[in-house]
């Protein structure tokens, strides 16, 4: 019996996989329901750059064949997963929402995506992002402005805005994003879903188009922490194709994270520098209320200090731009990517191809990064930033001597209006003030819904953990979600 796309919309990944295994519905039914929902909603929301009908149906039929043959279809059997369009899928357009890669079809697939397909997942489409993941609103996409499902006049956050919206709108229960300075957590907070950046090294970056290689990390979006844990378990693990992937075993229990009944014995650090004037009062109040709920579950709180977080944005915009200027040098119109049609000499051909292919924000970052790395300025900017980055990391090490996890707001405000910050890059950069330090320190960071503003916009709580303590962070979130229902509220989509 076909699966009604409204019935499908809010099913969890765990429910879908269980239903496919038990033959309540087929993976193909699920794929059809997801694709129907994408067709109905995406003209308005613009979450997808490319919907992959044929590929998802082919993957679904393979899952159904495995089920019919009595084989294990995998933990994501028939589960649609939306993929940020900076993750490569072989022979499938991968644009990074940039004109320079508008027709690029990579000859290989990202390890994280390969693992999803091997686990029975269906890659239903590639989602919109800020060009090369540079931005906090998805407005820097060269193709479309993704809308926030809670209020279509507002941004979904970014850079993984399309992935956050696909999950928030019930098009897919799971999505992949990448987080260099907050690009999973910030849009998760603004769209009212759960978003997780694992520890740097937990997930292979092979096949993720590089932005800032020492900060980039792939992670899941889901509608609850238990589904986020499931996808984290699937994509984690060492990969010979990414030398920075960690050789630690994937944490046990994430595939089916038990919902803890309480948080007795858990010490939560409250970083005083993250509770500052300037944060929207509704955000501050919702986060305080969430801390109250966590205490009610038995957690203890201790004040901690992360004094160098104040320099986080400054450090990030030196390190990330420096790495980006180097990573983006490869788009020269020769190796691959857009090439100018003007008949000019070689050097001018490079320059024109890049001038035509990159958008303003990407150009701004390349210029900043090239400047920070240039001789005479390297010591003053890049090297200094690396030293301050070490201090940010030390702050976390010290804080974690006194607590098991750190809680804070995810963003200083709920979703802002489309166009509100596009003329003011610095205001846009401040959207990540609470998320950037976790990337600099390489620790895991999670965003979960913890309330709504009076205007009905979602607010996010951030939980940061010790290196490789994915299970601890997700476990706290699962206990919180067992007690609250902010994550169960759905936008009215007409
Ligand atoms: N908003 C930040 C930036 O613009 C972070 C982006 C990200 O995490 N990819 O760089």
Give an overview of the whole structure.
The structure is a single chain. The chain has a single domain, classed as Amidase signature (AS) enzymes. 38% of the residues lie in helices and 12% in strands. The chain starts with a helix and ends in an 11-residue tail after the last helix. Bound molecules: glutamine. Glutamine (GLN) binds next to loops.
Explain the layout of strands and helices:
Layout: H1 5-9, H2 13-21, H3 27-45, E1 48-51, H4 53-68, E2 80-84, H5 111-118, E3 122-127, H6 161-168, E4 174-178, H7 185-191, E5 194-197, E6 218-222, H8 225-235, E7 267-271, H9 281-296, E8 300-304, H10 312-327, H11 346-357, H12 360-373, H13 379-399, E9 405-409, H14 425-429, H15 436-441, E10 445-452, E11 458-465, H16 470-483
Helix pairs in contact: 3-4, 8-16, 10-12, 10-13
Bound molecules: glutamine.
Residues 133-136, 159, 179-183, 211, 320, 432 line the site of glutamine.
Observed structural traits:
11 strands; globular; 16 helices; 494 residues; Amidase signature (AS) enzymes; single chain; binds glutamine; alpha/beta
Structure described in brief:
The protein is of the alpha/beta class and 494 residues long. The chain is built from 16 helices and eleven strands.
What's the shape?
A: globular
Spatial strand order of the main sheet:
1-3-2-4-6-5-10-11-9-7-8
Compute the separation of the termini in Å.
Answer: 25 Å
Give me the CATH superfamily: Amidase signature (AS) domain
Total discrete domains: 1
Bound molecules: glutamine
Number of helices: 16
Mean pLDDT comes to 96
Query: Regions with pLDDT < 50 over 5+ consecutive residues?
Result: none
CATH-derived topology: Amidase signature (AS) enzymes
Main sheet overview: 11 strands, mixed
Order of secondary-structure elements = HHHEHEHEHEHEEHEHEHHHHEHHEEH
Percentage of residues assigned to helices: 25-40%
Q: What is the second-level CATH architecture?
A: Alpha-Beta Complex
Structural class: alpha/beta
Provide the β-strand percentage band.
5-15%
Give the strand tally: 11
Please report the first level of CATH classification, the CATH class.
Answer: Alpha Beta
Rg, rounded, reads: 21 Å
């Amino acid at each position: 019996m076909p699966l009604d796309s409204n019935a499908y919309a809010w099913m969890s990944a765990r429910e879908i996989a269980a239903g496919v295994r038990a033959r309540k519905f087929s993976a193909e039914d699920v794929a059809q329901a997801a694709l129907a929902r994408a067709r109905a909603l995406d003209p308005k929301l613009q979450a997808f750059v490319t919907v992959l009908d044929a590929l998802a149906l082919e993957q679904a039929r393979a899952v159904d064949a495995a089920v019919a043959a009595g084989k294990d279809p995998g933990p994501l059997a028939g589960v649609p997963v939306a993929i940020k369009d900076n993750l490569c899928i072989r022979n499938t357009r991968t644009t990074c929402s940039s004109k320079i890669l508008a027709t690029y079809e990579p000859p290989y697939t990202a390890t994280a995506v390969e693992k999803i397909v091997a686990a029975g997942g269906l890659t239903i489409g590639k989602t919109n992002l800020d060009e090369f993941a540079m931005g906090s609103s998805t407005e820097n996409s060269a193709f479309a402005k993704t809308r926030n499902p809670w209020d279509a006049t507002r941004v979904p956050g970014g850079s993984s805005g399309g992935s956050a919206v696909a999950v928030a709108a019930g098009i897919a229960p799971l999505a992949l994003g990448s987080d260099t300075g907050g690009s999973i957590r910030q849009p998760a907070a603004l769209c009212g879903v759960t978003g997780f950046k694992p520890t740097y090294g937990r997930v292979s970056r092979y096949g993720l188009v590089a932005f800032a290689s020492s900060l980039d990390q792939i992670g899941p979006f889901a509608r609850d922490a238990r589904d986020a844990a499931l996808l984290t378990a699937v994509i984690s693990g060492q990969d010979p194709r990414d030398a920075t992937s960690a050789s630690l075993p994937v944490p046990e229990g994430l595939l089916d994270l038990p919902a803890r009944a309480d948080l007795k014995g858990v010490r939560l650090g409250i970083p005083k520098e993250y509770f500052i004037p300037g944060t929207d009062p509704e955000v501050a109040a919702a986060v305080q209320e969430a801390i109250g709920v966590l205490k009610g579950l038995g957690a203890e709180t201790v004040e901690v200090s992360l004094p160098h977080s104040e320099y986080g944005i400054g450090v990030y915009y030196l390190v990330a731009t420096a790495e980006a200027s180097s990573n983006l040098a490869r788009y020269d119109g020769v190796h691959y990517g857009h090439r100018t049609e003007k008949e000019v000499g070689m050097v001018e051909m490079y320059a024109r191809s890049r001038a035509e292919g990159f958008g303003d924000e990407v150009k701004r970052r390349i210029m900043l990064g090239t400047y920070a790395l240039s001789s005479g300025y390297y010591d003053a900017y890049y090297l200094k930033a690396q030293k301050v980055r070490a201090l940010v990391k030390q702050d976390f090490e010290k804080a974690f001597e006194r607590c098991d996890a750190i809680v804070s707001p995810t963003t200083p405000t709920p979703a802002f209006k489309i166009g509100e910050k596009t003329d003011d890059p610095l205001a846009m950069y401040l959207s990540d003030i609470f998320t950037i330090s976790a990337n600099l320190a390489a620790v895991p960071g999670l965003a979960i819904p913890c309330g709504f503003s009076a205007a009905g916009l979602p607010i996010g709580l951030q939980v940061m953990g010790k290196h490789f303590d994915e299970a601890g962070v997700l476990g706290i979130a699962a206990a919180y979600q067992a007690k609250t229902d902010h994550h169960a509220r759905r936008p009215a989509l007409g």
